[in-house]
User: Fold these one by one.
Assistant:
Number 1:
Amino acid sequence: MPVEPTAPVTPAASPVELEQTEGPAGAAFSRRGFLRVAGAAGLTSVAVSLAACQSATTPAWSFGAPATPGAPAATAAAPSAAATIAPSVAPSASAAPSVDPNIPAGWTSHDVAARVVVRRYIGNLAPALKGIYGDAAFAKLVDILGAGDNYPELGLKPSFVQVPQVVLNDLLAPLKATVDGDVKVFNLTIDEFDQKIDEMKAPVKALGYNAQWPGPTIRVTEGDKVRVVFKNNLKETTGVHFHGVEFADFFQDGVPFVTQKPITPGETYTYEFTASRPGSLMYHSHHNATDQVGRGLLGAFIVDPKKPAADDKYDREYVWISNDSLGGFTINGHGFPAVVPVLAAMGETVRVRFMNEGTMMHPWHLHGYKMKVVARDGYDLGSASFYCDTLGVNPGERYDVNIVADRPGVWAFHCHILPHVEGADGMFGMVSTLLVVPEKAHVDAIVAALLA
Ligand SMILES: [Cu+2]
């Protein structure tokens, strides 16, 4: 069964602060108040609006050894290191020392840029990982990230909390229904708004339900009577299709000039139907859709089963909606490094609901783990469920997978069409990670640290 969505989590009232410790390689680790451990159990679902999220100020602590006196400052804060760092010497078999002191020997500007992106992704979460994976693993992390640079991103929140996100963890914050008799009523607006794909990119002119991309998740239970009321605040017409619903009344299907007239600017339009079958469904524009869905008119419509199947049990849940038009290759309206990781504690089962609202297929590959595919287009696969580590999801398709967290680590989780994920400046677009930690309290602590 799904976890019960909860109100946004706030940090524990009595934070437990990390004490000053001596880290690997002599690195001093401290940041009072950095890691607040959420003492209460039950932090299984976190929804957060990060509109108020502020970039952290320069930290008063050090992740690594101080930068070498006289050495040039790290250039990691630049939007594109590759664009600001002079080209290094051409790679050669002799691995001649770089002429640019910002580029380590044997590296090129690509390597520096690629590291910057990962540094932005991890941000000030890096020190919080110290107590989680053990000293040896942490020492490797320190080395891989080049913590000795004391680089600027260590003082910043991770990229995925520097831009407004509907989701931090688990399910998108579901939209609250009002009740009219035996009908669940949802009211939404259709809006133009500015979407930041990444904190270092200029915002794009997006469209969104309730000015969000993805729109708020609409969640009901099989058999519910549902009424969804849309107020069109756009300067253009639209229509809303609930994708995967088996309508009794085809006039609710949301296709302008087939089942309805388009919804004009300023107009309010109502769809009403019974959620006759369970599953991971979607809602999106079905009018000028190449453009409108491409700009963000999309969201998840989840119908929970009345009687869950055996595979329909999980501890955490993530909606994963891909798109590939406005803003490039995105997961839930953002591109790496501004993509929220999938968090899991050892022993937990994580449900990921892949939904493809884009125009091309994306094969999602999870490193080091298998995914059990339990439903396609919301239909339970039952005995036909199968395992894979790469799952192609076509436009319009949804797949539900279960991942059982049985080994800690930071595991890459990305589209395997390589031009969708990596370029001259390192990783971008359709990249995320599965972050498996030993204890549930670690997940809670990470979440609390991010929210602090
Ligand atoms: Cu792709």
Number 2:
Amino acid sequence: MARKKKVTAKVISQKQIAEQIFDLLLETRLAKDAHPGQFVAVYPKGESTLLPRPISICEADVDKGMLRLVYRVAGKGTAEFSTCKAGDTLDILGVLGNGFPVDKAKGKRVFLMGGGIGIPPLLELAKAIDGRKKILLGYRNKDLFLEEDMAKYGDVYVATEDGSVGTKGNVMDIIRAHALKADVIMACGPMPMLRAIKEYAEKEKIEAYISLEERMACGVGACLGCVCKTTQVDAHSHVHNARICTEGPVFEMGEVMI
Ligand SMILES: Cc1cc2nc3c(=O)[nH]c(=O)nc-3n(C[C@H](O)[C@H](O)[C@H](O)COP(=O)(O)OP(=O)(O)OC[C@H]3O[C@@H](n4cnc5c(N)ncnc54)[C@H](O)[C@@H]3O)c2cc1C
Ligand code: FES
């Protein structure tokens, strides 16, 4: 795996693509090291927000040396990023985390399941996977984003909590409504969604890989601020813990207790 580097990236463009959702294109040499499901840590410039904010890689263009990040404004850090304009610079650390095991999906029927701000990392994954892809996306309402980009790489099914587009409910309701079947699941989204996927995959005996989110401080494995409970003890520390920023964020569902 490529060594993590802190670099200064140049903002190529930024636009708002949905309510509080921003689409940021950065020019950076980190693009060549990116693997689907990995993330970068973006440094705010304001003094009250010193820690970098983890944001998933939505797309990487190796030839052009560009990374695309799609994020929701949640607080001070992301609010500051949303003011960036073409020509500005941002310090980023990356690439971080393990990413999805793309090879596990080769030639198989795959569900890519994303909820809310868990959707962005699935775009680079959808491009990379060589399998029969069904892309199941869950949103709050009709304010969709990235669904048209996803449609280039697989069959897209949408669910909205208020029923304004697609299936009413969440990504699990899509599976039931369309009687869909898969051999492998790769998912990213809020914890209740990941728990429901884990329960379903265990019952149906489907292999599943889930990307976990936790608040992060260092982003590189040093502070233990991002640990999750694991089923096996860690060979190095002898405890039931894994650091989401380094051993994750993607885990085989049986490895973690969620
Ligand atoms: C591996 C990883 C990948 C991520 N990828 C994306 C992405 O592609 N797009 C995106 O929009 N967001 C992503 N996030 C979440 C993003 O990092 C947080 O929303 C961001 O750090 C918030 O920073 P802030 O300064 O704007 O908000 P803060 O002021 O720090 O917090 C505002 C609110 O957001 C909550 N929050 C902060 N961090 C997280 C978190 N990690 N998970 C859940 N809630 C949080 C806080 O509890 C608080 O309620 C990712 C997180 C991780 C760990
Ligand atoms: S954020 Fe510091 S160990 Fe993961």
